[in-house]
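Researcher: Please predict.
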Amino acid sequence: MKIFLTGGEGQLGTELIAQAAAHGMDILAPSLAKMDLTRPSRSIFWDDFQPEAVINAAAYTAVDRAESESDLAFA
């Protein structure tokens, strides 16, 4: 199974990558530097990989800064 994962650098994402590998799944998890969900037009991975499933594990986790960075938190 081919899985496309966002948020692969986070705590949940790294565990999902490890579990996918342990179960023989093909997983693509671009880094934030390569795929920023706040700038979706820069994401070029979809057509080439053609996943069967998508897992969104990306999150804004700077809770203490969410009020001062509300635009980024909502993006």
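Model: The chain has three helices and three strands.
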